[in-house]
Design brief:
Length: about 230
């Protein structure tokens, strides 16, 4: 949709705090996000451009636009990576359902005011009593301190080691299949001979198969309770 300079477009504030918008001749205070709805401010394209020149509010995601106009407006503002700017909803998902890849998206942020918005969403969830993993707490706190100390490139490393219980189960099942094939190759005479020579407390091939299969069941049960991505 082609945008027009004489038309006004809604600027939206999804933040939990008021945001000040300064244009060429005016200054506005936008109310915080409340009741599930962002506050809005109608501005012309010229006013939006001036506000963008005066601050980084659009680059840091503090202010956004209506979906049907955002691509064209961001293009006018020369904000090429606007799709990578995390929304508050995306931040909530990262904090409550973290993965190594999601945490890396947080650590890539090197603009202090942008990270402050992310940190504000995190603290809002924490203060509201949401369950947040220890790894997220440590990561957010450490990255916050890095940026406060002027360190834009993080030294934090995300542990990408994944739970490989499913792989172990597959390997165990393969070994069971190989054992079964070996047992099928044993002739009745060999099996009878082994049973005669076996010690009283020894385990026959049939019992080995039974015990191993039981272990595989236990491993499978543990795997179903294990999160695939380590926080």
């Amino acid at each position: 949709m082609e945008i027009q300079r004489e038309k006004t477009y809604l600027v939206l504030n999804y933040c939990a705090n008021p945001v000040s918008v300064v244009t060429r001749y005016d200054q506005f205070i936008m109310e915080p996000f409340a009741g599930g709805e962002p506050s809005s401010l109608p501005l012309t394209l010229d006013e939006i451009q001036q506000a963008n020149n005066n601050s980084k509010l659009f680059k840091t995601g503090h202010l956004r636009f209506e979906p049907e106009h955002e691509e064209e407006i961001y293009d006018v503002l020369h904000i090429r990576d606007w799709k990578d700017i995390l929304t508050n909803e995306q931040v909530e998902d990262i904090v409550l359902h973290p993965t190594a890849e999601k945490i890396e998206d947080i650590l890539k942020i090197d603009e202090p005011r942008y990270f402050n918005r992310i940190y504000g969403v995190y603290m809002g969830l924490k203060n509201a009593g949401y369950s947040i993993s220890k790894s997220v707490d440590v990561t957010m706190s450490a990255r916050y301190k890095e940026l406060v100390n002027g360190k834009k490139t993080t030294n934090l490393i995300v542990n990408k080691k994944e739970d490989n219980s499913e792989t172990k189960i597959a390997e165990l099942e393969e070994k069971l299949a190989q054992m079964q094939q070996m047992m099928e190759k044993i002739t009745p005479q060999e099996q009878n001979s082994d049973e005669k020579n076996a010690e009283p407390d020894s385990i026959t091939p049939k019992e080995v198969h039974s015990v191993t299969k039981k272990e595989a069941t236990k491993t499978s049960a543990k795997a179903s309770k294990t999160t695939k991505t380590k926080e």
